Amino acid sequence: MPRCPLPVAPPPQSSAVTPPRSPVGQDEPAPLSAHERANIALSFHVPMPEGYEEELVERLKKRDEAAFVELIKLYEKRIFQLVLRMLQDRGEAEDVAQDVFLTVFKSIDSFRGDSKLSTWLYRIATNHCKNRIKYLDRRARGKKTELDELSEAERLESVSMSASSQVARPDQQAEANQMERIMRRAIGELDEDQRELVILRDVENLSYEEIQEITGLPEGTVKSRLHRARLQLAKAVRSATELESKGRK
Amino acid sequence: MSETNTATASMSADDARDLFGDAIDDALSPDAKAAFESVLAADAELNDEYESYRSVVQGIGAAVPHVAVDENDTRGVRAPDLARKVTERIRARSKGRYFRDPRVSSSQRNQIMLISILTIFIVLIAIYLVLANATTLDLG
Question: Is A61 within 8 Å of chain B by CB?
C-alpha cells in the first residue's frame, strides 16, 4: 500500500489559529510580529491529507522508525516552542521535548484516536512541563538559603538600575524589552496549572474547546483559572512597573 | 436603554472584574457590554485595572520566546534536532531492540554475533579444561 506523502509545511493561514486579538476600536490589520508569524506557521494542528494521521499512528504502533522520525519532524518545532514557552529555559525545554517524544514512543499503544494526534501530543507535553515546573520549584525551594534576602535586594536594585539606565537611554525598544522581562518573570511566578492555561490561551491562541480537550478541565474551570492567572500577572506587572517608577525617582 | 441602566445598576465592580476575560474575548452580549462599559466609565480605578489586565493579556505573546520559522527570523530560537537525539535515546534504552543503528549493516551484525558466540564457546572450553586439569591433579 503506497504511503501518504509527508505533509508539507502548513500554509500561512490555518483555521486552528485564532487571529491575534486587536485592541478595541482598531479594526485595520496590524503587520504581524515575529511571534505572531511563528504562531501561525506553527499552529496547533498540522494540516494532513485524508487518512494520513491514521496510517501514521498504525506505523507508530508497529514501532516503525521512519514513522517516528516523520512524527518528530512534523511536531518538533511546535512541541519545542510550547515547552520553551512554559519552562522559559532552553536546556530544560530541549530535555522535556525529548521526553515528550519518548513518552509517545512508549505510550502510542494507548492512543485510541478519540482525539487528534496533536491534542494528545499537546496533552503529553503540557503534563511533562507541569511536572518539570513542580520539580524545578521543589529543587529551587530546597536550595533556598539565607542568601534569599540578598538576592531579593539585588533583584530590586537591578530593576532600579535598569530604570535609571532607561532614563539615560529612553528609547521605546528598551522600554519594551524591560516590559517583556517583567512579564516573563511574572509568568515564571505563576503555578504550573495557571501557566499552562495562560500559555495555551494567550500565547498559543487556542480556543477554549481545544484547551478543554488538552487539559480535561470543564470550560468554567478553564475560564476562572485563566482569569485568576491574568489578574495575578496584571498585579505583578503593576507592582514591578511602580517599583521601576520609584527607581527612576 | 432602560435595560442597560438596570444592568449597570446591578453590576458591581466585582461583577465587572469577573467579566474582564469575556470583554477581551469580545464575548459579552450587547447589554452586558454596555453595562460593563458604564461601570468602567464610572470607576476610574476599575478602568485602570481593566486596562492593565488587557495590556498584559495582549503583551504576553511578545514576552515569551518563539521558535524561528525561517532563516530570516533572527530573533527566534533555533529548534534542536530532536529526531536524531530521540532515536538515539530509544536505541540506547532498548539496547538495540528498536531503531537499530543504521551504520551497522546486517552482515556486520551477523559477524558480531558469530564472534560473540565463538568467544563464549572458547571461554567455556577453557573453563572446562582448567576444571578438568584441576580434578586430574587432585586425583593424582
Answer: no
CATH number of A33-141: 1.10.1740.10
In a domain, B28, yes or no: yes
The answer to whether the pTM exceeds 0.90 is no
Q: What pLDDT, on the 0 to 100 scale, is given for residue A17?
A: 40
Q: Which of A125, A98, A118 shows the shortest CA–CA distance to A56?
A: A118
Other beta carbons within 10 angstroms of residue B59's beta carbon come to 17
User: What confidence tens digit (pLDDT) does each residue in A158-167 have?
Assistant: 433 443 444 4
Is there a contact between A227 and B80 if contact means CB atoms under 8 Å apart? no
* Nearest CA-CA partner of A228 in B109, B17, B29, B42: B17
| Phi, psi torsion values for B121, nearest 5 degrees | -60, -45
pLDDT digits (tens, 9 = 90+) for A68-93: 999 999 999 999 999 999 999 999 99
Domain span including residue B23: 2-63
How many angstroms separate the CA atoms of A222 and A148, rounded? 34
Residues of chain B short of pLDDT 70, as ranges, are: 1-9, 101-106, 139-140
User: Are the beta carbons of B60 and A65 separated by less than 8 Å?
Assistant: no
The total number of structural domains in chain B stands at 2
B97 within domain boundaries: no
Which CATH number, 3.40.50.2000, 1.10.10.10, 3.30.1330.10, 3.75.10.10, labels domain A149-249? 1.10.10.10
Residue listed under C-alpha cell 504562531? A39
pLDDT of residue A151: 47
Q: What is the 3-state secondary structure (H, E, C) of chain B?
A: CHHHHHHHHHCCHHHHHHCHHHHHCCCCCHHHHHHHHHHHHHCHHHHHHHHHHHHHHHHHHHHCCCECCCCCCCCCECCCCHHHHHHHHHHHHCCCCCCCCCCCCHHHHHHHHHHHHHHHHHHHHHHHHHHHHHHHHHHC
Residues 6 or more apart whose Cβ sits within 8 Å of residue A1: none
DSSP 8-state symbol, A190: S
The residues spanned by each domain of chain A are 33-141, 149-249
pLDDT number for residue A26? 47
Shortest Cα distance, chain B CAs vs residue A36, angstroms: 8
Residue in chain A nearest B49 by alpha carbon = A234
Whether ipTM exceeds 0.85: no
